[in-house]
Amino acid sequence: MDRHIRRTARAWRQAARHPAVVVQVLESKGSAPRHAGTRMLVSAREAVGTVGGGHLELKAIAAAREMLAEGRGPFQRHYPLGPALGQCCGGAVTLGFDWLDDAALAAWPEPEPMFHLQLYGAGHVGQAIVRLLATLDCRVDWIDEREDQFPSAEVFTPAPDHIRAVAVDAVEGEVALAPPGAFYLVLTHSHDLDLRLTEAILKRGDFGFFGLIGSATKRARFTHRLEAKGVAPETLARMHCPIGIEGITGKEPELIAVAVVAQLLQVAQQK
Q1: CA–centroid distance for 162 within its chain
Q2: Which of 59, 106, 128, 201 could link 253 by a cystine bridge, Cβ 3.0 to 4.6 Å?
């Protein structure tokens, strides 16, 4: 995703690696594979990111490497995707080619996260979800009272700077620290803790998404207890439990993670 590409660009620049070209979609018309502002990096040996794949991307990489070999200045090139490249999407894009330097980095905006998530639970399912979220443009506060449950930084390559591990004793106190409209996922090792977190999230009320791991039976029990605590039925109705999109079944952490992350993306893209 764009965050990873920008982070790679910064790392290449800071490490004074081999020269590279930033290829950017300047204009996108009709049915085109990527939107304006999309970037990729091209060096003599590597290409990171994508401006659309297929013949367009082959042409873009070749043009960037010609620029590297010849030392030429920045330029633009227009590509009609259907007649010129034989791509079925049929739109047209204009690509810009520029050197990766300090000015290019300064003009490269930090991507807006698709969502800010508080993820409670560093067990197997939580770890599987974080492995997927490490590749997405989001912000994650990963919260657990058991510090030794968090995996080492070596699990992620590169280490994701948008995922923050938080080890605290009173984890429910973190609910109040999330921004308005935040997403929440609760999947801790304790039903009692799940219930306390659920109550705090529902009573706050301004969440963009709230998912609680568990069965329909767990949902019914929590609903009964929270109604007795004064949580409104319309607020309880916004709780997703079980979590995950329909059609992806299985109890393996990796399958649960795929279903849950797909659900987060569905909600984020509807906003």
Answers
A1: 9
A2: 128
Rounded to two decimals, the pTM is 0.80
- Beta bridge mates, 25: 95
Query: Are 44 and 68 contacting, i.e. CB atoms less than 8 angstroms apart?
Result: yes
Note whether 94 and 75 are within 8 A (CB). no
What span, in angstroms and rounded, lies between the C-alpha atoms of 126 and 143?
A: 10
The DSSP result for 71-88, as a single string, is T---EEEEEETTTTT--T
Placement of tokens 């992620």 in the chain:
156
DSSP character at residue 92: E
Instruction: Tell me 240's DSSP state.
Output: E
Burial class (CB in 10 A: 0-12, 13-18, 19+), 62: exposed
Residue with tokens 């949580």: 231
Which residue positions in the chain have pLDDT lower than 50? Answer: none
